[in-house]
Task: structure prediction
Amino acid sequence: METSSKRTRTVSWEDPFEVPRAAAGRSGLELLRDVFSGKLPPPPITATMGFRGVEVEDGLAVFEGEPGEHLYNPIGSVHGGFAMALLDSAMGCAIHTTLQAGERYTTLEVKTNFVRPITVDTGTVRCEGVVVHRGGTVATAEGKLFAVASGKLLAHGSTTCLIARSA
Result:
């Protein structure tokens, strides 16, 4: 089987360790504000998958992305991993905004529900993550992924994260 035209995609990113180095002595919200504003580089996955952080406040993180052909799966739509990456990023960063200096987190569980297929025709998507609960060692968040043009819900999810003090 021959393809009609070959496509290429070049991805560039900055040092992924610059943000962790800048984290010392700063709250999660302070750090993420610098990432979202461009004072610190975004994580490489955003360039790889085609999304960006657009808003961050205490308990809230918002990302937007462009579903491109490079994200397609064999059934003719954008792979679910794109929606999951946006949800995981928005929900995780929402929790990250609640961290005090010296705290860190890791994801324990992510649950995703796919409501509608995503294609290149969907256009820009927006994912909002909101903290539901922030305890001393466990935090939870919910996220919703929408098509910007239509406002239709594409996917939603929840996460549970473990909060720990840095050693």
In short: The mean pLDDT is 96.
